[in-house]
Design brief:
Layout (H helix, E strand, L loop, with lengths): L11 E5 L3 H6 L5 H22 L3 E8 L7 H24 L2 E6 L7 H13 L6 E9 L1 H17 L10 H6 L11 E4 L18 E4 L9 H11 L12
Parallel strand pairs: 1-2, 1-5, 2-4, 3-4, 5-6
Helix pairs in contact: 2-3, 2-7, 3-4
Farnesyl diphosphate (FPP) binds next to helix 1, helix 2, strand 2 and helix 3.
Length: 240
């Protein structure tokens, strides 16, 4: 994959991959069939990033609320994540993709966490595109964990409460090494944030599309990314 840059294009795109279940149900198949179809789309979108100048891609794979689904679906998704990492590992390393995971790992099974750690380590030297996968991720959970870690730092005397500002808190977030997303895309026609990157998307542009995630192509991704350049981002300031 060759690296090119696009003037004014989004550097960091985050995606809420929604609609897998409905896509499967419309075909009379179990919901997991939709998740498997959805997983295939991730590779296509990752591969489209360099030519579009997108350096960072963050995808929402499993939320802190998704545990409420049936045991079959949750177990199937966890197995899918394990298989995905095992299957894609080599291609990701060779394609120059640096993979990171965000979210609370405490509730995840050891086998999966070991694979996540391994993939992060194996791709640590890559820099062409930074793919972040959110598993057991929730924005409130992330900010709460960050606040707790910060409180421990204060208690240990390593941080003075009067020095705490927004940048200090951001350093304790899972995303501390990532820029904030410029653009957040949600598929499947729902216009909600659903606890995704709450802190980080304060000034992001949002794009809600009707397409169900398993039907979302690199072409549609490219169109949305290109149309972003026409937007006027002011970050609360007035136009000059
Ligand atoms: C939301 O659709 C999707 C999920 C909860 C799972 C997302 C997982 C993948 C796309 C596959 C794995 C990805 C990686 C990176 C390994 P939904 O089930 O809520 O759909 P619905 O709203 O139609 O029910």
């Amino acid at each position: 994959m060759a690296e090119t840059s696009e003037a004014k294009g989004p550097r960091h795109v985050a995606v809420i991959m929604d609609g897998n279940g409905r896509w499967a149900q419309m075909r009379g198949r179990p919901r997991l069939f939709g998740h498997h179809a959805g997983a295939k789309r991730v590779r296509e979108v990752v591969e489209a990033c360099p030519a579009l100048g997108v350096k960072y891609l963050t995808v929402f794979a499993f939320s802190t609320e998704n545990w409420k689904r049936t045991q079959t679906e949750v177990a199937g998704l966890m197995k899918l994540f394990r298989r995905y990492i095992e299957k894609e590992q080599r291609a990701l390393v060779e394609a120059g993709v640096r993979v990171r995971f965000i979210g609370d790992r405490v509730k995840l099974e050891d086998k999966l966490v070991a694979l996540m750690d391994e993939l992060e380590l194996l791709t640590a030297g890559n820099d062409l595109i930074h793919l972040t996968i959110a598993i057991n991720y929730g924005g409130r959970n992330e900010v709460t964990r960050a606040a707790k870690r910060m409180a421990f730092e204060v208690q240990a005397g390593r941080l003075r409460p009067e020095d705490v500002d927004a940048e200090t808190l951001a350093r304790f977030l899972d995303t501390h090494v990532l820029p904030d997303p410029d653009l957040v895309i949600r598929t499947s026609g729902e216009a909600r944030i659903s606890n995704f990157l709450l802190w980080q998307s304060a000034y992001s542009e949002y794009e809600f599309v009707e397409t169900l995630w398993p039907d979302f192509t690199a072409e549609e991704f490219g169109k949305i990314v290109k149309s972003y350049a026409a937007r006027d981002r002011r970050f609360g300031a007035v136009r000059v």
